[in-house]
Amino acid sequence: MTAQPLGPFFQVAYMVEDIDSSVRHWSERVGVGPWTIYRNVGLKARWQGRDTDLKINVGLSYRDGLQIELIEPVSTTPSPYQHDDGRIKVGMHHMAWTTKNFEARVAAAKAQGLSQVFSATNSVTNVAYFEAPDEPGVLIELIEVDDQMQDGFNQGIAASRAWDGREPILMDIDFEG
Description:
With 177 residues, this protein is of the alpha/beta class. The chain has a single domain (11-174), classed as 2,3-Dihydroxybiphenyl 1,2-Dioxygenase, domain 1 (Roll), CATH 3.10.180. The protein is 20% helix and 45% strand. The chain contains three helices and nine strands. The chain has helices spanning 19-28, 102-111, 147-162; strands at residues 11-15, 35-47, 50-63, 66-73, 91-99, 115-121, 126-132, 135-144, 169-174. The chain has an eight-stranded mixed beta barrel. A hairpin with a 2-residue loop joins strand 7 (126-132) and strand 8.
């Protein structure tokens, strides 16, 4: 076993109640930006053994190559983003790694003793969340990437390095539209 069996992590994700105020906070108070916001992102998912359809707003930015993801649930369907009573799980949510070999990495994570608790897909990507049985709480995510998605990530990293702190929003995209 290597010291970093999944390799270097790519993303840290936070659950938020209001994507717009959180983007302002991260831009003005923490100095992270510019942001790309994807609204109404639909996901076909499986959570705790049941199929579910989700809708979320997602904000992406970068700091020194690390992707910061903000997630605001739009739907109220069962998901890893909300408590059983529907309240959003505000705060640090998961750490993520990217892979071009998604199925093999999912199998490897399971072989390492991680328990898959969530999977989701849409026209852009597949993701899977895992939990370590001896360390519940923060989830581990694997994100399937292709060359086009990686190019988008690289453009976001370049934009963050050139950002002058003025315009906090790089793009605001309605995923449905």
